[in-house]
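Example record used in the benchmark description.
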Amino acid sequence: MTKISKDTFTFLEELIANNNRDWFNTHKLRYEQAKQNALDFTEELLVGLKKIDPSIPEDLQAKKCVLRIYRDVRFSKNKAPYKSNIGISISSDGRGGTLPGYYIHIEPGKSFIAGGYWMPEAHHLKSIRQEIDYNTSDFLDIIEAKAFKAYFGGLSTEDQLKNAPKYYPKDHPYIHILKLKSFICSRSFTDEEMAGENMINTVLEGMKLIYPLNKFIKEAILQ
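Model output (structure tokens):
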């Protein structure tokens, strides 16, 4: 079973301390090895995920999921040319699409897996809130399930409005959910956990719990 190599974390640690083109070009082979490690991990992960989520295209390959390490610095004050992580993004409409999906973040001391829909566009957000309002019990069955809360602790409340969204009363019994601007869940892992022999199964366990959330959201925005 493929695992994230400790060499991948070592490379990222050194990249964080030497985020410049000269250093990167000198260590390009190490980057290619770290990238291949992520590709191998993703390829094996996709085999399991496609059994969980039938909307993931059968022909989706790892190279379409592993994100570029090069940063777009044109409009950023931070001019470091490289990301300090390797990201893996998977959804039914491909990398960078506009549907809910799954994400794996590999970074020294900051690794995590996540899923759901981060900062949906306004028309999608409206549809999601409406579906939650209409079918609250179905949504609660997902996010309050014992296994979901044990693994993720519940939905993230980081992105939310200060006031009730338009058309919803402030005393709505589930206004704390309707105020959310993102519908995501995440779980952090140590470097040692990420490099563990059984990490693919651990990630797939989380993805199996994310799938009902993604399915609910997708049905809300595509109906």
